[in-house]
């Protein structure tokens, strides 16, 4: 019989887990999952957990969703994979048509990679290469926001700013121009989100005015810096950014890998600012959380800058083996069908409102500095001192206590440092949200005692 403990033993003998100090597992049990259904994950000892973080923000419509399962099974019997250079297939064509139809206006060309970081790499290279093909060889730099996260490969890591992941590798990384984030946790008392975000734009304007000649693109996570502890800002910043990028002749890369596909409350976060970026990077929810797939969608002017006689060597020669994998595309098509058929964005508004109400009482908690929410992302920030907002020392790992408490109470919560958050699959029910709110409340009490 397979149970948790023998699977853990075999695992720890041979695996190296992501984003993990493996020594922690001397005292922090791994959780081997046997099956998933809807919001539930079940381990080998029969214990269940509500997947409140959508398995690292990828799952949209529950585990083992019958509609997505069916589509993948059908595709599996037709074609599992084929090279996408020189060849094509129906799911990738259909998915490209869909993505062009649903992404912000003007984005008309889809380029595929097989994970979020590699989509960022492709967008950075495309932007740089676009300018090069225009004879603008002096454009070699990128502007990024402080506290941003764009993935872990060296190029993506370079334009990110979460020091925990980046600092060690600094000697290997290209150096972006980093501009202070419009993060509204930092706003003055009494200032609104839009006032703060507007004020913070002055830094971006200044960086563009000073460096535009050498800058290929500005890269941002629209509205929510997810890995940066779910810090949020106002759509007005994106509006100002689009205008300034146009004014200074710099491209705009929107990394919607985390916030895309409804997380922000709209299908894409850029919609809330009424803007179209020059590149939108998509992954995570793209396949409903089933398979690794990512896309960079861009517009015709950029595409045309690469379209040339072969001898001129202006083509974009970037590739990955599993580019446009048919099974991933089939999962994505099934996922997008669910958005169309079930009025997901409208229904999520009720779930989002319920999430907000369910934790509203924590506003008064002596160690909760802020509860913030953008659509289906809700975050609660624990602090040592509510008045000064002095954070708990990171070494105390208070969030981990919430994680451990949740596991004992049928929930998977995985705080980012001192920030507890919900980012659940959209099939969660109000009752299940209430359960998460209870577990989070207890967890925060336990974690902030003494
Ligand atoms: C997760 C994430 C990435 C990286 O995607 P991976 O598939 O994990 O490589 C990039 N940008 C943002 C905003 C993300 O949240």
TrEMBL record:
GO terms for molecular function: adenosylmethionine-8-amino-7-oxononanoate transaminase activity; pyridoxal phosphate binding. InterPro entries: Aminotrans_3, Aminotrans_3_PPA_site, BioA, PyrdxlP-dep_Trfase, PyrdxlP-dep_Trfase_major, PyrdxlP-dep_Trfase_small. It is an enzyme of class 2 (transferase). Its EC number is 2.6.1.62. It is found in: Cytoplasm. Gene3D superfamilies: Aspartate Aminotransferase, domain 1, Type I PLP-dependent aspartate aminotransferase-like (Major domain). The modification N6-(pyridoxal phosphate)lysine is found at residue 284. The record marks 19 as: Participates in the substrate recognition with KAPA and in a stacking interaction with the adenine ring of SAM. Pfam families: Aminotran_3 (PF00202). Pyridoxal 5'-phosphate binds at residues 116-117, 255, 320-321. Its cofactor is pyridoxal 5'-phosphate. Its main location: cytoplasm. GO terms for cellular component: cytoplasm. Keywords: Aminotransferase, Biotin biosynthesis, Cytoplasm, Pyridoxal phosphate, S-adenosyl-L-methionine, Transferase. Substrate binds at residues 56, 149, 284, 319, 414. Pathway: Cofactor biosynthesis; biotin biosynthesis; 7,8-diaminononanoate from 8-amino-7-oxononanoate (SAM route): step 1/1. GO terms for biological process: biotin biosynthetic process. It catalyses: (8S)-8-amino-7-oxononanoate + S-adenosyl-L-methionine = S-adenosyl-4-methylsulfanyl-2-oxobutanoate + (7R,8S)-7,8-diammoniononanoate. Catalyzes the transfer of the alpha-amino group from S-adenosyl-L-methionine (SAM) to 7-keto-8-aminopelargonic acid (KAPA) to form 7,8-diaminopelargonic acid (DAPA). It is the only aminotransferase known to utilize SAM as an amino donor. HAMAP family: BioA. Homodimer. Belongs to the class-III pyridoxal-phosphate-dependent aminotransferase family. BioA subfamily. This is Adenosylmethionine-8-amino-7-oxononanoate aminotransferase. The gene is bioA.
